[in-house]
Amino acid sequence: MTYCVGLFLDDGLVMLADTRTNAGVDNISSFAKLQVFSTPGDRMIATMTAGSLAVSQAVMNLIQEGVQDPETGETATIYTVPSMFRAASLVGEAVRQVYRTHGKAMQEHGLSFDVSILLGGQLHGRTVRLFQIYSAGNFIEATGDTPFLQIGEHKYGKPILDRAVTSETNLIDGIKLALISMDSTLRSNLSVGLPMDLLVYRKDHLEGPSLRRITEDDEYFLMLRKRWSEAISEAHRQIPQPDWGF
Amino acid sequence: MTYCVGLFLDDGLVMLADTRTNAGVDNISSFAKLQVFSTPGDRMIATMTAGSLAVSQAVMNLIQEGVQDPETGETATIYTVPSMFRAASLVGEAVRQVYRTHGKAMQEHGLSFDVSILLGGQLHGRTVRLFQIYSAGNFIEATGDTPFLQIGEHKYGKPILDRAVTSETNLIDGIKLALISMDSTLRSNLSVGLPMDLLVYRKDHLEGPSLRRITEDDEYFLMLRKRWSEAISEAHRQIPQPDWGF
Fold this sequence. Notes:
The structure is a homodimer. By secondary structure, chain A is an alpha+beta fold. Chain A is built from five helices and 14 strands. Chain A has one domain (3-236): Glutamine Phosphoribosylpyrophosphate, subunit 1, domain 1 (4-Layer Sandwich). Chain A has helices spanning 53-65, 84-108, 158-164, 171-188, 219-238; strands at 3-9, 12-18, 20-22, 28-30, 34-39, 43-51, 67-68, 75-76, 115-123, 129-133, 139-141, 148-152, 196-202, 210-214. Chain A starts with a strand and ends in an 8-residue tail after the last helix. Chains A, B: It comes from Alkalisalibacterium limincola.
């Protein structure tokens, strides 16, 4: 399994992905699920992928090699699209192309064609945007009302985001909340695993994003896990007892 | 959807169920998912059900009317079984009987035969036990290592239990943690809804359990929700910032 979360904040983007992929419990590997397509000064686009690794790798290849726009007939890549909306359309079209190539054969072998992609970024002179692209190639966009998107094993890590993330959350709090959300997922689902990849993009800093790989030994993450667990245990004790006469 | 959680603690049982059932978003009703089968002084047995309402109601009827043991040929009810293990077997056999009666017709109509049942309680002179019965009629039991079981929409409410519940947790803290787990689920999934039913059973108190229906106006639950949200928001702010130079 996979867990990826993207926060769409007024100050920019926080994107966090685990790196665990598996084909059964005896075949577990790490592959980067977070990829950055950046031309300093012009564009910063990043993707995170969940679902079939074969499908998502094929899609990632296609958007770099070029996908033909079914309407205009022109070939575009993630480095040439003129907007984030067109980038989301490009990824969606790449998903459909992979489906046309592999979908039927995968079905015949009982494999579901299953992929979800988060796509965030900014082009020069335009606003930051964050999209989620589905297996059908269609997509939705994060808004101020729903300032985060999740793919993969998303339920364990959702309550903390529902409670604490708003679009006004600053990038540093966003990093902390994304890490807490990931930690909740890591504890409750063994098939999501460290290390994880973190991207932080401050709005209008088109020279590039900040990236960090967080391993099991990462001192900050270890401290955050510990502090969070202690805070949770303490928090429920601080709540008064019910007066129900039980 | 449904969310039910049972805590298996050294001091006894905490069982909490929402009451929302639906057959599509325009057809939402409340039915008790928590049922108590109690003979004061002799036995306290309680069930919570998730999945198809038709199936779970049929099972609840059968265990009261009587189910024939396929090995001994004798008919037993939830009021006559001599142990909690035999109670779990009875429920499992009832599930299989409902499957034999309705399973094929349900399949023909594209309905999945889907039911999960938590069964907790104690018989005079014996220990408290908590079981989870599956759609196939087989079952597992909670142990000191895994002192809680969940059915239905379980993922949102699992992280808090993973972090805070041990078998040494007392009943009052158990009530708080079950309510927090339910609150996380209510916030993240609209198809789980209030009111909810709470059962607290103190070990060896065979005169009966304590029961409470918790509605939207319940002052304690409103206070707990508010205090918990504030504590969560405060907790992440208290964690130091990462020193990553972002």
